[in-house]
Amino acid sequence: MNVKRFLPHSLRKRLDRGRLCIDEFAENVGKELPAETLLLDAGAGECWYKPHFSHLKYYSVDFGLGKGDWDYTNLDVLANLLQLPFEDNTFDAVLCTQVLEHINLPGDFVKELYRILKPGGKLYLSAPQGFKEHQTPHDYFRYTSFGLRFLFEEAGFKVEYVKPFGGFFFFLGDRISPVHRYLFSNKRSIGWKLLFLPLEPISKILFSIVLPLIVSSLDSFDKKQKWTNGYGCKVIK
Questions:
Q1: Closest Cα to residue 233, out of 119, 137, 150?
Q2: Could you read off the pLDDT of 43-65 as tens digits, one per residue?
Q3: Which pTM does this prediction carry?
């Protein structure tokens, strides 16, 4: 049973810190960009963030190699992200969230985003530092702030910021959440399941809700934020 569905929506969002940070990053991009900005969502997937950009000229592209059950029918273009089908200096801004780890030639990709941006155009990009393998086999890299700066500067961008999505305690809160699934996996023996059955609901609440909320609330103690889920970046051509 998914106990989180009984919680208020605001609390459920706090329990997925990794996703919440990226949602807030995209929402803030929408607030920052002026009306009629021509924005490309590069690696848009199912276009989750499109509602944040209703005041913009929103365009989406993806290479369609994410999860097999994703719906790509809302995309404007399905294309190779390393060879985008756009002219030089086309877009005012580019949004690229959690895509860079799925690109086997990340330097080439960042240069391609530079190419399609107008002079003075802005790239808003997020990338993970600490996360599990996902969308395999198309999962190649994780990024430090220094690695991201290197890629941006090699492509010719001026870096405005590379900000961590929380520190150690946000990171730890996300890592605690899957503990219950490992302890009470469907692959456990019948004997083990029967023996520990009374503890299952306690484990579910403790590791899925209570501990992640308590641990993540301590994040202000981490001033350096070297342990982080990832980064949100803004760079300028």
A1: 150
A2: 999 999 999 999 999 999 999 88
A3: 0.90
